Amino acid sequence: MSSSAETDFTDPTLLTRCAEASLQIARDIAPSAEVEVALASGSGLSVTVRGGACELLESEQDKSLAVTIYLDGRKGSATTSDFSADALRATVGAAHAIAEQGEADRFAGLAAATDLAADVPDLDLDHPWDIEGEAAIALALACENAALSADARIKQSDGVSVNRYRGARAYANSHGFSGAYRATRHSLSAVMIGAEDAGMQRGYWYTSARSPTQLTAPEEVGRLATARTIAKLGARRIPTTEMPVIFEPRVAGGLVGHLISAISGSAQYRRASFLLDALGEQVLPEHLELHEAPHLPGAIGSAPFDADGIATREKAIVAAGRLETYLLSAYAARRLNRAPTGNAGGTHNLILTPGTRTLEEIIAATDRALLVTDLMGFGVNGVTGDYSRGAAGFLISRGERAHAVEEITIAGNLRDMLMNITEVGIDVDESLAVRTGSLCIGRMAIAGS
Predict the structure, then answer these.
(1) Would 263 be classed as within a structural domain?
(2) Distance between CA atoms of 92 and 78, rounded to whole angstroms?
(3) Per-residue DSSP letter, 317
(4) 7 by DSSP, 3-state: which?
(5) pLDDT at 240 over 90
């Protein structure tokens, strides 16, 4: 297989040929072995401007091929970024040699042929952006200029970035599955620094999408970055207390992520989850449901099959507050004596039941609470559920943002926090892979001054 600079390695057909060539080599070496081949490739452009000048202009090209061979439960894997015929033979040979020396694991192996995707639907994921260096720089400068001119208290830019990326993924195995597809992801982000007598603050905003036509206009991204920066000026600590905590949508998704991690197959079979053996139990309030919708056209989290070649499918993860399923790869499913769920490699478009009020309406109806807009640190214990994160945001008093807050810590236990979600806003950001509105937690401990 040629690896010349002219070769388009984001072509799914080319990746499929590489995968099939690797499988044939493996069949020649070990006819009875189970074999899988996973390929990923992509190309992109990244531009960053700061203070009216281009700071970074970077072109990206990457590709990788991973071969895994199973010999009676013994597993061997090898990878390469060279797709030439000689490199494929060497990579397959290395994987086979490792498998021969491996220790047997009776749960290891390919997904059952009956579980593999029968077809690969077109999910409208490929929307290439033909923007090149000069045009990307101009777009970033327009964003930066809009941010800097929106308020005199913005003293400087901390960087505006434009990114485009087009990649392809392919997977094939010796059970007869072969699938490939292209996908794109583009983004624009701005970080501003504001200052007044009370000090300096940094704020940001960003937009991302499969299609460049779905990106927020650069001038609007700049203005939003400025507005969020200015709102932080005068931030201060608040006394240690307990009160309701409201998470903005872009940080609320993290709470959903902690729930997902706890019900993953690996967390369950390793006995390392705060939701251990929780299937059928109440994990959210009864008014909430959490769905996975992997086939939404053009969505950032959509995928036709998982890392095992199993078809992704829509399903209720939590219904009426009760946990309906774990999220299982083929390996985890065998470990737990259950059926795989099409989640090898993660989830695809999570949707938490939205409520009926926007964030501003929730704030207007709140007497006293903390609105969290930023989280810092990694103080989350997935085994016990203990949660402690640095936070910044706003003190809500009598239905209004009283002042910005910083240098505080919010703490609780994830199981209690999830069960104590009192409201989900209607302000869902559909550009994210976790679609949730603002989340209100009835009460959390806040460590401040």
Answers:
(1) yes
(2) 7
(3) E
(4) coil
(5) yes
